């Protein structure tokens, strides 16, 4: 049963191959097995590639099945249509389109498995890139909010500076009227004279202004600090919201780019391995010697071709002979006097009938 299945995979004529030797059948079993296992490898590679994209086994398996059937059908068709000839280069010319396609397919399907093989190294590269992206994201978000934060900070500092300035002014008035009362400055008269009263009045006025300024500015500072906390919360929230996007930077394209940052030689050899697998059905057919099956198939094809060409030639002669005979028959009829007179009479009667009909129509219109 397995032998019949692999012969089916090879695309060979089963009835014709049954009459061949056991060795010839074994050769086509090997070719069919190569076609089958190439399709299996295509299923594994394409299925894993789609799994890395959708992270869902169902579409990955379905696409892998369709892709493997496509490769299987293509390889089976190409292998079955390559005819063994006396020239190897002629056979190679037949297989060249499939070889070019195999190179493209090998590059495409080798990447997912390379990603799986070098998964740990790729994860290290992606971790570094994610960390760098997180730092850059934090800098960008901080820069976005920096203007408002700096403006808010400057306004708070300005309000505090006004309070400090007024406090210094009040302290200066306080030192002035105390020195006046002690007689150490100003008029240098001990006691609370008119100058003392004037200076303490200035101090009291400045103290009231300080109290009012502190009340107003502290309220403004509280609002500004509340706004600063809101801005900082928004900044942290923005960073938190964008972090999952960075954490999700783990798709197929990201891994391919990370793979390209690793040394190229291991990936190159894996790609060569898949290229060998993809081209193995064609190579197996090209390297297989011309055997009993090929000779029998060539005999059937040449016999059929000869029969078709002979039939075509005979049909051509038949048409040509029939045309010559008909030309001669109608030439003899044209020289018959009785047929000529009969045809003339019929034509005369037809013209007379047409003329009478025309006259009747003309009368009917008047």
Catalogue the unreliable spans.
none
Helical stretch tally:
11
Compressed to H and E, one letter per element, the order equals HHHHHHHHHHH
Strands, total number = 0
Q: Overview of this structure, please?
A:
The chain has helices at 2-10, 14-18, 22-54, 57-81, 88-117, 119-182, 194-247, 252-260, 264-287, 292-334, 337-364. It is mainly α and 366 residues long. It has 3 domains: 2-118 and 263-290, no CATH class; 131-252; 307-364, no CATH class. Keywords: Coiled coil, Membrane, Transmembrane, Transmembrane helix. Residues 149-241 form a coiled coil.
Characteristic terms for this protein:
single chain, 366 residues, mainly alpha, 11 helices, 89% helix, transmembrane helix, transmembrane, coiled coil, DUF4407
List the helices and strands and how they pair.
Layout: H1 2-10, H2 14-18, H3 22-54, H4 57-81, H5 88-117, H6 119-182, H7 194-247, H8 252-260, H9 264-287, H10 292-334, H11 337-364
Keywords: Coiled coil, Membrane, Transmembrane, Transmembrane helix
InterPro entries: DUF4407 (IPR025519)
Protein name: DUF4407 domain-containing protein
Summed up:
The chain is mainly α and 366 residues long. It has helices at 2-10, 14-18, 22-54, 57-81, 88-117, 119-182, 194-247, 252-260, 264-287, 292-334, 337-364. It folds into three domains: 2-118 and 263-290, no CATH class; 131-252; 307-364, no CATH class.
